[in-house]
Amino acid sequence: MPARVTTLKELAAQLDLSITTVSRALAGHQQIALKTRERVTEAARQAGYVPNTAARTLVSGRSGFVGMVLPIRGPNLVDSFLGEFVTGLGEGLVSHGTDLILAAAAQGQSELSVLRHVVESGRADGVVVTRIAEIDERLAYLRQRNFPFVAHGRLLDTDFAYNWLDTDGAHAFGEAFDMLYDLGHRHFGLVTIAEPMTFRHLRQDGLAAAIARRGDPSVRLDVATAPRFDRGARIHAINRLLHAAERPTAIVALFDELALSVMEEAARAGLVIPRDLSVIGFDNIAASAYAPPGLTTFDASIRQCAREIGEMLLTVIGDKSAAPLTRLIRPTLVSRASHGPAPTGQTDAGAAHNQGGRPR
After folding, report:
1. Model pLDDT, residue 22
2. 97 CB burial (10 A radius; 0-12, 13-18, 19+)
3. Contact 27, 63 (CB under 8 A)
């Protein structure tokens, strides 16, 4: 085993390379041949060498860190989605010798103000931005600063060029509707959030487009909306759907946490899933597989997407002048036990409703 080294000079001498070459290789500079970078990285690992961040920054102009602002909006530091995302992002970065720093934005604190501090302090070489709003001041700021970033999600403004990776929620919600329609459902519910997030807009548009394609006047859609982090308002909105005189026979939720709340409240109301009510979510968080009877959902590959975002960001950091990188990933249906045929008589009930009558 190679002798342990504690300085860049010792590592360079051991490899018979210049200090500048070793420093740049450890920083991942593209000017250094890939084989040399791999050789230096492996030698550093075997020798137990840890680069001095301050010294590396002075030599390379880079910190070796990527930043992400973590908003604290509820009782838990992170929700299930963010937990998987942060794990995947860290995995994607560390495999390339880059570390992730998280900057918390407390309740009542602007994410943009925290992001400004990360950027202007020089602590990070680039940032990842999640949960994109329909109009997002964070992205406008980063582009104005010409600071490397990759967004997980899209803006509504398609003329705003930037680096992003997203999942095709519109296609998934259209697929969910078609599947439920073919099972005989005609009365649908949508549980969504009040915040102006682009993913909300795109998924709801996908559902609306699928309904329009069928051209069936017997189809009915009821919408329950509540602020994302207001659990009381969410439960109240869900129960308005479940206890309506004519309740939906199938509910599509914007994401899994909402779908799981629907299943919990349905059980309290004495409804049997999927005999009385079908429920479909989106994301495929870990809890969706274990909540009885098992939530049918769409796998958004959260962890893998985050890994790819980390790799995209390192590419952007290496070449700020490159054309924007974009990728749209199609989520996969995970068929479990929370959906099934419409209850007997549902189609007749839908027809009676559209004729102004009531089901018998």
Report:
1. 83
2. middle
3. no
**Mean pLDDT taken over the chain:** 88
pLDDT value, residue 3? 63
Contact 346, 187 (CB under 8 A): yes
Element (H, E) at 24: helix 19-26
- Strand pairing class (332-334; 297-299): antiparallel
Residues 9-64: pLDDT tens digits? 888 888 899 888 887 787 777 778 888 988 988 888 888 776 665 455 545 556 78
Question: Which residues are bridge partners to 251 per DSSP?
Answer: 189, 279
At 271, which amino acid appears? Answer: L
Which 3 state secondary structure label does DSSP give 224?
strand
Residues making up the chain, counted from first to last = 360
Q: Distance between CA 233 and CA 196 in Å, rounded? A: 17
For β-strands 187-193 and 332-334, DSSP reports them as: unpaired
d(CA 305, CA 172): 16
pTM above 0.70, yes or no: yes
Whole-number Å distance between alpha carbons of 29 and 27: 6
Secondary structure (DSSP) of 105-165: E-TTS-HHHHHHHHHHTT--SEEEEES-BSS-HHHHHHHHHT--EEEES--S-TTS---EE
Query: Is the peptide bond between 274 and the residue preceding it cis, with omega within 30 degrees of 0?
Result: yes
CA–CA dist 290, 358 (Å, integer): 37
Q: What's the sign of the alpha-carbon dihedral 251, 257, 262, 264?
A: positive
Residue 256 CA to residue 297 CA, distance in Å, equals: 7
Residue 78 binned pLDDT confidence (cut-offs 50, 70, 90): low
CA–CA distance, 295 with 195 (Å, rounded to integer): 24
